[in-house]
Write a structure and sequence with these properties.
The complex is a heterotetramer of chains A (about 500), B (about 650), C (about 100) and D (about 170). Chain A has about 500 residues and is mainly alpha-helical. Helices cover about 75% and strands about 5% of the residues of chain A. Chain A has one domain. Chain A has 19 helices and two strands. In chain A, strand 1 and strand 2 form a beta hairpin. Chain B has about 650 residues and is mainly alpha-helical. Helix content of chain B is about 70%, strand content about 5%. Chain B contains 26 helices and four strands. Chain B has a two-stranded antiparallel ribbon with strand order 1-2. In chain B, strands 3-4 form a two-stranded antiparallel ribbon. Chain D is mostly helical and about 170 residues long. Chain D folds into three domains: about 1-85, Up-down Bundle (Four Helix Bundle (Hemerythrin (Met), subunit A)), CATH 1.20.120.1200; about 85-115; about 125-170. Chain D is globular, with a radius of gyration of 21 Å. The chains are: A mainly alpha (about 500), B mainly alpha (about 650), C mainly alpha (about 100), D mainly alpha (about 170). The interface between B and C is small, with 10 and 13 residues.
Chain lengths: ~500, ~650, ~100, ~170
């Protein structure tokens, strides 16, 4: 399996889309590209299973490695490889991008550029997940920022310029922090300069340097994954973005941060991670609860989902910060699960908005009658968000809770319990949103005339639902993919070589 | 032993019906969807009865005549990296088999009954799909092998309850009730979840059998750590069990988490019969019974709490039930009261000796209660269809119009009142006996509750079927037929069950140790409760058989107590105060404000500062070449000076 | 001519240079600014010639540089005057203060 | 002090005085004339130093070319006799201070620097030698800059025409 294909295919699709003449051509190409990509990812998963099954149980290694010199003078390589966790994230990306293309089927404004940017973004995300060279990874991370700015600024709604600026600037700021941290890794880990992830994890950075550089890396990636208090780009960015961009943003982009926090910040500086873990957990707990409470007061469906994303990404950080084996597993599960769920939620909100032209909870109501499919979708996304068993949210949240409980110190216990409380708050706001926008008496006669979902929307929803249900009903399938990787990361984090 | 793997079909058949109707229900015309679901459920019920027969009479016992716990199927569903795992499987033991029978039987009755009751509903097939989902979840709950499995299905029954309560989703009150039910039980489930975490981390397993074994083994390490560590002077184990009980109390509508149950009556009446009377609400009892070993052997403190919560709930609900006028609400409070009975029956029994009979008694009452309470609700559904109102004042003199309903309702009332030889008598006696042994105070509460129960049930009975025909609905005679055969059949079957269930030698089948026990029926002991019940019935007859002034006088006598009871002791208001005023106003609103003003404000301030800063710097950029030159020359000179004289 | 030390040439050229700078900064008319520029260039030329004469009398590089500077100065002056005329046509003024469209 | 040296100082004084007058005069035409004097005096210094060719070029190019060009442009853009707008006082003071400071600074530096004056051989600097030097391709040859300058001049000529041309012939 040639990993480079994963980002080359979308990149080529993107470029070819630029030469199309009409919406029909552009979207057909984009769809074709994403379907091919989905097959590619399916093939990747199959190949991964085949390759790793020979390695024995619990062994996690990066397979399909490729290495080429890129900037030899700076020791920067083109170096890619995947383990189970990255494969899972790549699968998530493929599903969300496909669904994103489908829900944007009828973009009328500059469709060519729209699909170009979408594919371009996905290329960045794929590249990010396969990179094993930190500089290469950073390169792809940056690649995935600028298109968002354009997507929101051009195709957005509401105060889109403000949101686009805010999002791009905050994410850029995050990248800047990340880069400082990466330079720390580059110069201070090991005897020679290196951006090689594998080598950097093997060598030990002096603890004082770790303590200095860890916050840069973690906060930098934290901005991407809505770490409190760097989360405020999330509500504005999501609410202004067009549906597909929201899906991408919440579904994948926020996961870049979580993945980075885990893979880069934590793994490269385990001692510092231990030292800072209590702060991470505290911030995560605040994000979880505070995001949930703030959601209760929102009236715009997109804001509701955006704030709930803050809360749900808090679980990712909570799992990461707890640093136990199950909690890391839970964090990864939560990344995948939240990606699918929030994408579905945004898709459903987009479908509602397209028909009713409002996203205000108070102006909706009773759409269940005319749009049973969209309503069911919305309902399922909501249920997934509040952690209903059988849907993916339950699996991941419970894993995070179980993992967090393994930390027996009183402070960690308290924060675990506090985070658990969010399941109630989540239920409150989700049911409020569902109760007043989906159920209830139809707001007006016009509400009885809406058309239910079209085929493209149905397929998009089915793609995401399939993911959610597969994780929710048969979690062992995903679990066997990510378990070895999580174990390995947990081992790396348990490494205490130098006393603090 | 593997013959019990067929049990997997018991939950799967309703699930298939759910999938089928959920996806293709809209293409089915008329009552086809209902018949389809009923057939599926009939299959499930048949398998359940078969399993019950095989388990109780053929293969359940081991060589010593003790009922075994059989796990015919278990697979790892989710492996946690830390070592715990959530398993999915089937667990067959006496209480599970008993519950299988109850759930499938009542569900089948409700399926049949709804064919007529829900006919003509716009979302008929959706209704049956939801019923299927509920039945699936409830059966999955019953068959759980794993603490987390029970939690999973626990949540699923919660959501199906939400869907069914909110079935008439264009009614604001239905949505509110559905939300309330879900959120209140969810809050209780928070306790359940944390309880699971506490217990599992102490025992190192989530598997029921291993868990119970480890936490009751007084030499084991699990029990030692669980009791040695503690919080606020209470051991971790007791905390864990109390939190789990909190989950059970939420689902079973125990005081003070009961507030959702009366509102849940917004759902269609057959749903109330199935979910909010017979099956889901007893899940809490089932849960405590499942973990009974740990409660009884390792955490007597938690048992005490269970007993008192049950006792208080039963009395509390009985008092409120006497004052309510909506017949479904009366039944709802009655349900709460009866579940309180079961709960304290579990709570008062110890791990050994004669007191352990409380375990059997609780399950017995669960069984009989399911029969007569479902019957009461289905009967109430008939009545409501006949008069198109839930209010007692709109009813009266319906016994001629609804003869079958009348008769079966009377049977159910006698059963719940504990009049021999109806089913309730036997189970109640067993409970009171168990309470009498260890907790005299609770015994007296039970006695009073029993009398109140008799009173309010017959208040209902006389109010509906006797007395003056309500002028308000004098025209109700032309739709005065009682529904078709399939609506009456469940009433009759349940009526027969309510009459005869008491004669089942329940102790032979269900007991904590797995050995047969003899349930106590002692004439001398029975005189007091039975006579009190009869007094209650007589007072009700005196008050309500004919229109009379007595109820008002008595109400006046009790004054503010009556008003308070009528207002359900203001518990709802307290909850509203907490949610509206404290959670929304003092937590959520400030959080949202803080986010928009402080955090976002800080971000925006950075933005504004950068902008004004750059604007003020940009004033230097005049576009005038000479000013640039001036800066250039000045700066060059400065640099020269700096480099020559200050930096070498 | 050797009784005049090199430093006097340099002082002369420095003075001329800063007179040019002064003119460049203080005059407002574009033509006078151009004139100040010519003074600056000439001061450089004097330097080249003086260095050539005193420090490397065996070579001619200073001379050549001066030649090229003069040639370039001529080209510069021509282009500058063309620009000035164009600006004049556009703004009806050759005041440097009026020409400020080159900003944000 | 010899006569020769006095010549030098007189020429220097002429250069500086007319330069100062050139940058301070309020009459633009006078300014140009003072510039002319200054440039001629510089040519005189070149003569005095025996750089006849440079002096000649200076006279021809500057005096005959550039100054004439400047005077033409003055005629084209300025009504004769109108005095220039007064320079801005603040800018003027700044310019004066900067210039004086810069002058002092540079003079201090160059007085402090020991230049190694070479009194040995004086190369012959006839027209012939200059011609050879300019067109020589060897180590000391300047043919490449020479060619570059010629291209530059051509480019400047074309550029001047393009820039000074009226933007649109139809509006002319």
């Amino acid at each position: 399996m040639n990993l480079s294909l994963l980002f080359i295919v979308p990149a080529i699709t993107a470029v070819v889309i630029l030469f199309t003449r009409s919406l029909q051509q552009a979207r057909a190409l984009a769809l074709g590209g994403s379907v091919v990509q989905l097959f590619l990812v399916g093939n990747l998963i199959a190949a991964f299973q085949r390759t790793t099954s020979g390695l024995g149980d619990g062994v996690s290694d990066f397979v399909f490695q490729q290495r080429m010199a890129w900037f030899p003078s700076l020791h920067i390589d083109y170096f890619v490889g995947v383990d189970g966790i990255s494969v899972a994230m790549i699968g998530l990306t493929a599903l969300v991008v496909l669904a994103g293309v489908l829900v944007s089927w009828n973009v009328t404004k500059q469709p060519r550029e729209f699909f170009f940017l979408l594919m371009f973004l996905s290329a960045g995300a794929y590249g990010f997940f396969i990179s094993l060279d930190l500089f290469l990874q950073f390169f792809f991370l940056e690649l995935a920022v600028i298109p968002k700015y354009l997507l929101i600024g051009i195709w957005g709604s509401g105060k889109k310029e403000y949101s686009a600026n805010k999002l791009a600037l905050m994410l850029m700021g995050g990248s800047a922090l990340v880069f400082v941290g990466l330079l720390g890794v580059y110069f201070r880990s090991g005897s020679t300069v290196t951006f090689d992830w594998l080598r950097a994890t093997g060598s030990i950075m002096p603890v004082s340097d770790q303590l200095f550089f860890f916050p840069f890396l973690f906060l930098g990636f934290g901005v991407f994954t809505a770490l409190f208090p760097f989360h405020t780009w999330v509500p504005d960015g999501h609410s202004s973005a067009p549906t597909a961009a929201s899906m991408f943003l919440a579904g994948i982009s926020m996961k870049l941060g979580g993945y980075g926090c885990l893979r880069v910040a934590m793994c490269l500086m385990p001692e510092a991670a231990q030292y800072y873990s209590v702060y991470i957990v505290a911030l995560a707990t605040i994000a979880v609860l505070y995001g949930a409470f703030a959601t209760m007061m929102q009236t715009d469906l997109k804001y509701i989902n955006a704030y709930s994303s803050v809360s749900h990404c808090g679980f990712v950080l909570l799992g990461i910060g707890m640093m136990t084996r199950s909690s890391i597993q839970g964090a990864v599960l939560q990344m995948v699960s939240h990606g699918l769920m929030t994408a579905l939620f945004f898709a459903a909100i987009g479908m509602l908005y397209e028909r009713t032209h409002t996203r205000k909870v108070s102006e909706l109501g009773g759409v269940m009658k005319s749009m049973p499919f969209v309503s069911t979708l919305f309902f399922l996304a909501g249920l997934c968000s509040l952690g209903l068993p059988g849907l993916s949210g339950f699996v991941s949240e419970m894993t995070v809770f179980v993992g967090s409980w393994e930390r027996a110190e009183t402070g960690y216990r308290v924060m675990t319990v506090l985070s658990c409380m969010s399941i109630v708050v989540t239920a409150v706001y989700i049911l409020r949103a569902i109760g007043s926008s989906i159920m209830g008496a139809p707001r007006s006669a016009a509400f009885l005339q809406f058309k239910d979902a079209a085929w493209n929307e149905r397929v998009a929803a089915a793609v995401l639902m399939a993911g959610i249900l597969i994780i929710g009903i048969t979690p062992f399938l995903l679990n066997q993919l990510i378990l070895p990787g999580s174990e390995k990361i947990a081992q790396q984090l348990q490494r205490i070589i130098l006393p603090l | 032993m593997n013959m019990f793997t067929q049990a997997v079909w018991i939950p799967l058949l309703p699930f298939l019906s759910f999938l089928l109707l959920g996806f293709f229900g809209k293409y089915l015309k008329g009552t086809t969807a209902g018949w389809l679901a009923t057939v599926f459920l009939l299959g499930a019920a048949a398998i359940s009865f078969n399993i019950a027969y095989e388990y109780f009479f053929l293969f359940g016992k081991d060589a010593n005549g003790v009922y075994q716990t059989i796990v015919p199927l278990k697979m790892t569903w989710l492996q946690f990296a830390g070592g715990l795992s959530i398993d999915m499987g089937l667990l067959i033991d006496p209480i599970a088999v008993m519950m299988l029978v109850v759930v499938t039987f009542i569900s089948l009755m409700v399926h049949l009954y709804s064919l007529g009751y829900m006919k003509g509903e716009e979302r008929f097939s959706t209704y049956y799909a939801y019923l299927g989902l509920f039945t699936f979840s409830m059966l999955g709950l019953v068959l759980s092998v794993n603490l987390f499995q029970i939690y999973i299905f626990w949540e699923l029954v919660g959501v199906s309850s939400f869907l069914l309560i909110g079935f008439y989703f264009d009614r604001a009150s239905a949505i509110a009730a559905a939300k309330k039910a879900f959120i209140v039980t969810r809050f209780a489930d928070l306790g359940f979840l944390i309880g699971i975490l506490v217990l599992s981390s102490a025992a190192g397993t989530l598997d029921f059998q291993t868990l119970i074994q480890r936490l009751t083994d007084s030499t084991g390490e699990g029990l030692h750590t669980a009791t040695a560590t503690g919080f606020l002077g209470v051991s971790a184990l007791t905390w864990g069990l109390l939190l789990i009980f909190m989950g059970g109390a939420g689902k079973s509508a125990m005081f003070p988490l009961h507030i959702w149950l009366p509102d849940a009556m917004e759902g269609p009446t057959p749903v109330s019969a199935l979910i909010h009377a017979a099956t889901m609400v007893v899940a809490g009892v089932y849960l405590v019974a499942r973990l009974f070993g740990i409660f009884a052997f390792s955490a007597p403190g938690a048992m005490e709490v269970v007993a008192w919560v049950g006792a208080i709930s039963s009395l509390f609900a009985a008092v409120i039930a006497c004052t309510q006028t909506d017949i479904k609400r009366v039944l709802a409070y009655s349900t709460m009261s009866q579940i309180g009975y079961m709960m304290f029956a579990l709570g008062v029994s110890g791990g050994s000796g004669e007191a352990v009979d409380g375990f059997t008694a609780a399950n017995f009452h669960l069984f009989t209660h399911a029969m007569f309470k479902a019957l009461l609700f289905l009967g109430a559904g008939m009545v409501i269809h006949a008069v198109h109102s839930n209010e007692l004042k709109d009813m009266g003199g319906l016994r001629k119009q609804l003869p079958v309903t009348h008769l079966t309702f009377l049977i159910a009332c006698l059963a719940i009142a504990g009049v021999p030889p109806f089913a309730g008598f036997f189970s109640k006696e067993a409970i009171l006996h168990a309470a009498h042994l260890t907790h005299p105070a609770i015994y007296w509460i039970g006695i009073i509750t029993a009398a109140l129960t008799a009173f309010y049930m017959f208040r209902l009975y006389f109010g509906i079927f006797h007395g003056a025909t309500s002028s308000h609905h004098g025209d109700s005679h032309h739709h005065g037929h009682e529904g078709d055969f399939f609506q009456k059949l469940p009433l009759i079957l349940l009526g027969v069950a309510s009459m005869t269930a008491g004669f089942i030698p329940f102790g032979n089948f269900v007991s904590f140790s797995g050995r047969p026990v003899e349930l106590h029926t002692d004439l001398a002991f029975s005189i007091l409760p039975v006579s009190l019940s009869l007094v209650g019935i007589l007072i009700a007859a005196w008050f309500y058989r004919k229109p009379s002034e007595m109820p008002d006088k008595v109400a006046g006598f009790f004054g503010s107590v009556f008003t308070a009871a009528r207002q359900k002791f203001y518990i709802d208001e307290i909850y509203l105060f907490i949610t509206r005023k404290i959670i929304f106003k003092l937590i959520a609103a400030p959080a949202a404000w803080f986010d928009r003003s402080i955090i976002d404000g800080t971000v925006n301030t950075f933005g504004v500062a950068a902008q004004t800063g750059s604007e003020s710097i940009s004033d230097l950029q005049t576009g005038k070449v000479q000013s640039y030159a001036a800066w250039f020359v000045g700066a060059t000179l400065l640099l020269i000076i700096v480099f020559i004289y200050f930096i070498h | 001519m050797n009784e005049v030390p090199l430093s006097h040439f340099l002082i002369l050229s420095t003075a001329l240079f800063f007179i040019g700078v002064f003119g460049f900064l203080s005059r407002r008319n574009l033509v006078t600014i151009l004139m100040s520029l010519e003074l600056i260039l000439n001061s450089v030329n004097i330097n080249f010639i003086a260095f050539n004469q005193y420090l490397w009398p065996g070579k001619m590089d200073g001379l050549f540089f001066t030649l090229f500077i003069i040639a370039i100065a001529a080209a510069e002056a021509a282009v500058a005057i063309a620009i000035i005329l164009h600006l004049y046509r556009h703004y009806r003024s050759i005041d440097a203060e009026d020409v400020d469209t080159l900003r944000f | 002090m010899s006569i020769s040296a006095m010549f030098f100082y007189a020429l220097s004084a002429a250069v500086l005085v007319s330069a100062v007058l050139s940058v301070t005069s309020r009459n633009i035409f006078r300014s140009a004339i003072f510039l002319l004097f200054s440039l001629i005096s510089i040519a005189g210094i070149y003569f005095w130093m025996n750089y006849e060719f440079i002096a000649a070029v200076q006279t021809i190019v500057y005096v005959g070319g550039i100054v004439v060009l400047i005077i033409f442009s003055i005629f084209l853009t300025q009504q004769a006799g109108v005095s220039l707008p007064a320079p801005m006082k603040g800018r003027m003071i700044y310019a004066a201070l900067a210039s004086i400071a810069g002058f002092v600074l540079v003079v201090m530096q160059l007085l402090a620097h020991p230049f190694k004056v070479d009194n040995s051989v004086v190369a012959s600097r006839g027209i012939k030698d200059i011609g050879h030097g300019l067109l020589e391709t060897g180590a000391n040859g300047y043919v490449l800059p020479f060619e570059l300058v010629s291209i530059l001049l051509l480019a400047a000529m074309i550029g001047c025409i393009v820039i000074a041309l009226k933007p649109n012939s139809t509006t002319a």
